[in-house]
Design goal:
Outer membrane lipoprotein wza fold like; six-stranded mixed beta sheet; alpha+beta; five-stranded mixed beta sheet; 11 helices; disordered N terminus; 16 strands; wza like fold; rod-shaped
């Protein structure tokens, strides 16, 4: 009866494993069907499941962190305009001597001009010109101010001309901060320059280029871009405007690799950008004996507008960031082309599920282990029963034959 009970217990255990074996098997993460079904499970953290298609890759390509996305206007900035505190120099010319500024004795002066002492644009936005009075400088360009001075003197001087120069620029400044050689406020150039030029005047980046990021703030708008994009994608090397803020900082880019990959760890990009195909390769590729090529997943948070552009229903999500699990099928040959256009982001997580055959092998191994474990006491009981009968038969034979010494030195069973 004891052997029958063991067999029944073994049968019950086998049936339990057949129904819920996956929950008992050791595994490095969710199975593919768990990822697909989990988005509808109210007990889980809500997330969206998106298969990587050309449309999805195109939407994400337009949402990459780039300066040109927020500042698409590639026209050069307007001419610099003077502000309160700027120090200006003014030189006035007359066509001939005997006028307002040039005496009649031509030999007395070396030329037909006069330089007015350097003066700052006052709190009212004006500068003072002899015989011309207060002339507004604030908000005017160099050419506009020169014409305003001429208009104020043309009825008194002989064909006057004026040249305005900037002695010290105190208002049209650009702030370059962070991880640069000489952070600080530098004057904007009269000749328009681009962001890389301005960073060069500030000493350039202090750290390695692949890890450097650039933030540009202008008129309340901000945009981020890897420094490498300014070099390799010229559209991101936008013109700098007066009063822009450029902040350079270092942030090493990494991603996490889990599941049936060659390695499971945090992996640095090693470049200013990498694609999904490169990320999988850096993680050792898919393990031939374990990975399901159709179950390659990437975990990332996307902004609400990007998620909506991909067709995700965001009504069930709260907050500006939508959790998204992307899936790509590497059994499809064309997916490798998509993987080379899908750009990785900092702190992305790549997970590859095991194939069904791997889980089946694990289950069969457990069945064999449990079968061996269950058979051990049964075999022991059978062996003990056989030995018991053998010993009983040996003792009886000895009594019948009149043997004085037992054949086997074991006491007979009662």
């Amino acid at each position: 009866m004891r052997g029958v009970g063991i067999l029944l217990s073994f049968a019950l255990l086998m049936s339990h494993l057949a129904v819920g074996g996956c929950a008992l098997m050791p595994v490095s993460g969710p199975e593919s069907w768990d990822v697909w079904a989990g988005q509808h499970d109210p007990k889980n953290i809500p997330y969206a499941f998106v298969r990587i298609t050309p449309k999805v890759a195109n939407v994400l390509g337009k949402a990459l962190p780039r300066l040109v996305g927020e500042f698409p206007d590639r026209r050069r900035p307007s001419d610099l305009r003077f502000g309160i505190g700027d120090l200006l120099g003014v030189t006035i010319f007359e066509a001939s001597s005997g006028g307002l500024f040039i005496p009649a004795e031509a030999s007395v002066r070396p030329g037909n001009f006069i330089s007015i002492p350097t003066q700052a644009v006052d709190v009212n936005g004006n500068i003072s010109i002899p015989y011309g009075g207060a002339i507004r400088a604030r908000g005017r360009t160099q050419v506009e101010l020169q014409q305003a001075i001429v208009d104020a003197l043309k009825d008194r001087a002989i064909e006057p001309q004026a040249i305005v120069s900037v002695v010290e620029q105190r208002t049209s400044l650009i702030s370059v901060l962070g991880d640069v050689g000489r952070p600080g406020r530098i004057p904007a150039q009269l000749t328009p320059e681009r962001i890389v030029d301005t960073m060069s005047r500030a000493g350039g980046t202090a750290g390695p280029g692949p890890d450097e990021w650039v933030m540009l703030e202008r008129d309340g708008r901000r945009a981020l871009s890897p420094f490498g994009a300014l070099i390799y994608e010229p559209a991101n090397n936008v013109f700098v405007h007066p009063n822009d803020i450029i902040y350079v900082y270092r942030e090493p880019q990494t991603y996490l690799a889990f599941g049936a990959l060659g390695t499971q760890q945090q992996i640095p990009f090693g470049a200013w950008r990498i694609t999904l195909a490169e990320a999988v390769a850096k993680a050792g590729g898919l393990r031939d004996e374990a990975a399901d090529p159709a179950s390659v997943f990437l975990y990332r948070g996307e902004t609400r507008d990007v998620a909506e552009a991909m067709g995700i229903d965001c009504s069930k999500f709260q907050g500006p960031i939508i959790p998204v699990i992307y899936n790509i099928n590497f059994r499809n040959p064309g997916s490798y082309f998509l993987a080379t256009t899908f750009e990785m982001r900092n702190k992305d997580v790549i997970y590859v599920s095991n194939s069904v055959s791997v889980e089946a092998s694990k289950f069969l191994s457990y069945v064999r282990l449990i079968n061996a474990t269950a058979n051990d006491p049964i075999s022991s009981a059978i062996n003990a029963f056989t030995l018991r009968n053998l010993l009983r038969g040996t003792a009886t034979t000895a009594v019948i034959t009149g043997a004085t010494t037992p054949i086997i030195n074991v006491a007979p069973a009662p």
